[in-house]
Design brief:
By secondary structure, the chain is an alpha/beta fold. The protein has helices spanning about 5-20, 110-125, 145-160, 165-170, 170-180, 195-210, 235-240, 250-260, 300-310, 330-335, 340-359; strands spanning about 25-30, 35, 40-45, 60-65, 70-75, 80-85, 90-100, 125-130, 180-190, 215-225, 290-295, 315-320. The protein has one domain: Rossmann fold. Helix 2 links the parallel strand 7 and strand 8 (about 125-130). Helix 3 (about 145-160) crosses helix 5 (about 170-180). The longest helix has 20 residues, at about 340-359. The mean pLDDT is about 90.
C-alpha cells in the first residue's frame, strides 16, 4: 500500500533531523520554524516550545466516518485532501482551502487545520478540498498561486470526467469527489498567507479569460490575510506578539524568503491595495467575506484592504473577531477549553456558512 501524504511528511521530517545531525551549518533561520542550511536545503523541524507540537501532528485519512465525515487523500499535482460530510442530499458546494504559514511552513494534514476544516465541512455542509502548497524558500511566489489554480483545474477535470476515464478516476477519492461536488459553487478559503492566496488565485482565474465552466469561483473568504506594507502603522509597531505562532519579525523573514528576489513588502502579492498593484477596480474578484481579528498584529492593513475593496466597488463583507489574535481558531486546545475562543470560532464558522448559502 502506498504511504499516505501525512506519512510522507513524517518521513520528510525525520530526514531533515538527520540532515542537520550530519554537520551542515545553519546560514539563515526563522526562530523555531525553519533553518536554511549551507548546502541550500531547508530544515523545518520545530525547535520552539514543545507544547505547540501536537498542533503540527499530521492526521491520517480515514474512509470510515468520524464525527459526521470521511477524510481522503488524493495524491497528484498538487496533492489534495478531501473532507466529505456524511449527511448530504445531492451535490455540495466546494470549499478550496489554502493553508497559511507565511508561504514557508505548514501542511494541510496538520491537526491545527484538520479540526477546523473537518468541522466546517459538516457545518456548511460542503466538500472541503485542502491543497498542499509549495513552500518557500525552495519555491518562491508565484508558485503558490500556480498551485491554487492547478488545484481548481484538477477539480474541474475530475468533475468533467466520464465513468471510464481511468486516468482521472483511478483513485477512489477522485470518484467520491466527482459524485459529491457541485463545482459551479467553489469558494476559496484561506488563513494568513492563504488569505493572500484567496485574493490572488481568484484574480488569476477571473483575469485568465479561460472557459472554466462548469467550475465557477462563487466567493472567497480571506481569514486574517497576510497583507502588509513596507511602512508599518503605529498600532502594528506597538502590538505584542501572538504567542509562539506569529510575530512581525517572523512575518518579515517569511516574506523575505517567499517574495520574488528583490521585491519589497509593497509587492502586489502582499499589498494588493498598494501603488505597485493594479487598481482594484480592474481586478476581477468574486464576492468576499474578510475576517479580521481585533487583536491581530496586521489588523490595520487588513482593514485597509477591506476599505480599498469597498472604494473599488467590490462586493465585500467584514467580520471582526472581537478580542481575538491571528489565526486563533486553529489552536484546537484554546477552541476546546476557552469559552471565548470557542464562541468566536463558532461565529466564524457560522459566518462562512451564511456567506456560502447566499452565493
Amino acid at each position: 500500500m502506498a504511504p499516505t501524504i501525512a506519512h510522507q511528511h513524517e518521513q520528510q521530517a525525520h530526514a531533515q533531523v538527520q540532515q542537520v545531525a550530519r554537520g551542515r551549518k545553519v546560514v539563515d533561520e526563522v526562530s523555531g520554524w525553519l533553518r536554511v542550511l549551507d548546502d541550500g536545503t531547508v530544515d523545518r523541524t520545530w525547535t520552539g516550545p514543545p507544547e505547540a507540537l501536537p498542533l503540527m501532528q499530521p492526521v491520517a485519512p480515514y474512509a470510515a466516518p468520524r464525527d459526521g465525515h470521511t477524510l481522503h487523500d488524493l495524491p497528484g499535482e498538487p496533492n489534495l485532501r478531501v473532507y466529505l460530510p456524511e449527511a448530504r442530499a445531492g451535490r455540495l458546494p466546494v470549499v478550496l482551502q489554502l493553508h497559511g504559514g507565511g508561504f514557508c511552513i505548514s501542511r494541510p494534514s496538520w491537526l491545527m487545520y484538520h479540526h477546523f476544516y473537518a468541522r466546517l465541512a459538516c457545518a456548511v455542509p460542503a466538500v472541503v478540498v485542502a491543497v498542499e502548497l509549495p513552500l518557500a524558500p525552495e519555491r518562491r511566489l508565484p508558485a503558490h498561486i500556480d498551485a491554487g489554480v492547478a488545484a481548481l483545474r484538477r477539480i474541474r477535470a475530475i468533475a468533467l470526467s466520464s465513468e471510464d476515464d481511468s486516468a482521472l478516476l483511478d483513485d477512489p477519492a477522485a470518484r467520491l469527489l466527482r459524485e459529491a461536488a457541485d463545482v459551479s459553487r467553489v469558494f476559496l478559503v484561506g488563513d494568513s498567507s492563504g488569505g493572500n492566496l484567496v485574493h490572488l488565485v481568484a484574480a488569476r482565474v477571473g483575469a485568465s479569460g479561460d472557459d472554466w465552466a462548469p467550475l465557477r469561483v462563487a466567493g472567497g473568504v480571506p481569514i486574517h490575510p497576510g497583507f502588509v506594507r513596507a511602512a508599518r502603522s503605529r498600532s502594528e509597531m506597538e502590538a505584542k506578539p501572538d504567542a509562539v505562532f506569529f510575530t512581525l519579525d517572523m512575518l518579515d523573514k517569511f516574506l523575505a524568503f517567499a517574495l520574488p528576489e528583490g521585491a519589497t513588502k509593497d509587492h502586489p502579492f502582499t499589498c494588493p491595495m498598494g501603488a505597485q498593484a493594479p487598481p482594484l477596480e480592474s481586478v476581477p474578484l468574486p464576492p468576499l467575506l474578510v475576517s479580521v481579528a481585533e487583536n491581530d498584529l496586521i489588523r490595520d492593513t487588513n482593514l485597509e484592504y477591506c476599505e480599498a475593496l469597498r472604494a473599488a466597488g467590490k462586493d465585500v463583507e467584514v467580520l471582526v473577531n472581537r478580542g481575538m489574535s491571528h489565526s486563533f481558531y486553529l489552536n484546537k486546545y484554546a477552541v476546546d477549553m476557552d469559552p471565548t475562543t470557542g464562541e468566536r470560532t463558532r461565529e466564524l464558522i457560522d459566518a462562512i456558512k451564511t456567506f456560502i448559502s447566499r452565493h
